[in-house]
């Protein structure tokens, strides 16, 4: 993925109003980025209304890896 595409993704995430219990739209957007890959299992877990967490399993599941939507981009530089 080129630098411009990474910037576009980050801009889109920043533009989503995800403050104060509204993370679902961010989860939906990130999910859409990975939905085109056949080896990715996508699972949304609802904590509360509009408070979804996202679990992405890429390839074979070799154990859990946990993260948070608000730190997702800083941890996962390569998509």
What's the topology here?
Layout: H1 3-15, H2 24-34, E1 40-48, E2 51-58, H3 72-75
Antiparallel strand pairs: 1-2
Query: Helix count?
Result: 3
Low-confidence stretches: 71-79
Question: Termini distance?
Answer: 7 Å
The total number of structural domains is: 1
Could you say which overall geometry the principal axes of the C-alpha atoms support? flat
Helical fraction equals 25-40%
- Could you give the order of the helices and strands? HHEEH
What's the alpha carbon Rg, rounded to whole Å? 13 Å
What report would you give on this structure?
With 79 residues, this protein is an alpha+beta fold. The chain has one domain (3-75). It is 35% helix and 22% strand. It has helices spanning 3-15, 24-34, 72-75; strands at residues 40-48, 51-58. It has a two-stranded antiparallel sheet with strand order 1-2. The N and C termini lie close together (7 Å). 5% of the residues are buried. Mean pLDDT is 80; it is low at 71-79.
Briefly summarize what is shown.
This protein is an alpha+beta fold.
Name a few traits of the molecule.
79 residues; alpha+beta; 35% helix; flat; disordered C terminus
